[in-house]
Amino acid sequence: MRTRVPLPLLIPAGIGLVFLVLPLAGLLLRTPWSSLLDRLAEPEVTTALRLSLVTASIATVVCLLLGVPLAWLLARVEFPGRRIVRALITVPLVLPPVVGGIALLLALGRRGLVGSWLDETFGITLPFTTAGVVIAEAFVALPFLVISVEGALRGADTRYEEAAATLGASRWISFTHVTLPLVAPGIAAGAVLCWARALGEFGATITFAGNYPGITQTMPLAVYQTMESGDLDGAVVLSLILLIVSVTILAALRDKWLA
In this predicted model, what pLDDT tens digit does every residue of 100-151 receive, in sequence order? Predict the structure, then answer.
């Protein structure tokens, strides 16, 4: 039976869809298709794209290693201040990215809380390096993973974990052999969102890692620099590439993990 949609819902839904699609349509219509292939072949474009894909992927792995245990802690363990911890984890979601970059500098910069120790003790300098790009991207993307995995953990049936415990499985064995398979779709969905957020990161990256071609210049930074130089067509082409990569990845994984 066909569902009749009330007009009070249909009209704002349609406006919302147009609101989201219209800028993308403008980007496609403004793209200089005749020179697109020449633009794509430019070394600085391929370098920025490769750096974006590599750093976003590494940042996602870092988020998985840190975020899954963090989400499990929030979902399964009662401890004082859990609400405060959860609020702190979600701060990067609402924090202006530039502010996040400044915070990273104050913590991990050469004169930062931890950065000065790393520099003096091990000679490790993180700002304005490729590693700094990964850190900035992981900082803004980690909450997406934690929220997704925590939601999946809360929705998972704990009776399987209890059954494993009654059979003598340790907490670690139960986590790796029961819990992780149960919430694998949630982890995958969080990883995809995390990767997409890392790929589009701009503010924290330019503040903490700078904008050096071949070292820290990712695609969003390349778009910004091209736009600043007055090359609108170039900026449109770079934006289109970023859009195509993001949509392709999300569409390819949507039915499998994000449905």
Answer: 999 999 999 988 899 899 989 998 999 999 999 999 999 999 999 999 999 9
Q: To which residue do tokens 């701009």 refer?
A: 202
CA separation, residue 81 to residues 66, 187, 202 (Å): 19, 25, 32
pLDDT, tens only, 52-87: 999 999 999 999 999 999 999 999 888 899 899 999
Angle at CA 121, nearest 5°, toward 117 and 126? 60
Region class of 81: left (phi > 0), else alpha (psi between -120 and 50), else beta: left
Q: What share of the chain is helix, strand, coil (3-state, %, to 5)?
A: 80, 0, 20
pLDDT for position 169: 82
Task: Please state, in angstroms and rounded to a whole number, the distance separating the CA atoms of residues 236 and 34.
Answer: 13
pTM above 0.85, yes or no: yes
Q: Say if residues 169 and 27 touch (Cβ distance below 8 Å).
A: no
**Mind spelling out the 3-state secondary structure of 35-73?**
HHHHHHCCHHHHHHHHHHHHHHHHHHHHHHHHHHHHHHH
Q: Cα–Cα distance between 63 and 45 in angstroms, integer?
A: 27
- On the CB side of 67, CA atoms within 13 Å amount to 31
Residue 168 DSSP class? T
Helix (H) or strand (E) holding 125: none
Q: What is the reported pLDDT for 171? A: 83
Rounded to 10 degrees, the C-alpha dihedral 56/33/38/198 comes to -10
Q: What is the DSSP letter of 112?
A: S
